Amino acid sequence: MYKYLLFDLDGTLTDPGLGITEAVRYALGKFGISVSDRKALYPFIGPPLWESFERFYHFSPTESEQAVNYYREYYKKQGLFENEVYEGIPALLQQLKDGGKSLLVATSKPEVFAVQILEHFGLASYFDLIAGATMDSSRSKKADVIAYALARAGITDPGSAVMIGDREQDVQGAQANGLASIGVLYGYGSAEELTGAGATHLVTRPWDIIKWV
User: Fold this and answer.
1) Which of 8, 10, 166, 170 is catalytic?
2) Domain limits of the chain?
């Protein structure tokens, strides 16, 4: 059905919960904010960090930029690898490659971090392209990352590609670029969130992706 499969990273290929929430907690601590329950920070997984600090803690743009810098102090040192690959992902990617699909990553995580993570966990070789955000805010929204990935891959027919991710930003970014979407329910987004955003399909396990592609 689709030749090009664009995968989100966090919450879709890997479970980054520990590293991201610990990095957010570290950043908030620099502002005197203490968060005892890491699960309260799960909404930070997926959307651009700038937006989340402003939305959930009402930071100004300047404060958000500083918070992201603090976040990265922790994240690049250890948070990157406080992470694990979801069960079944390597086998899924191998079968898709064997079936002639072209696999790409489109993530709101800075591209340099995405490459490091995928290489560390032995997943980078499955992908023809790893597209991510810039370290500044010039390319951070998922719609912009997807557009960047499509351009770099030379994909001109939106009907030949599908975006696979766990949050509403993945679905909305796909729609902005004329792509269908597959919402995964094993990540950090709910069925209500993904359905409300207009996901084309929903799956409960990684392996279920196969039947839609």
Assistant:
1) 8
2) 4-15+84-212, 17-81
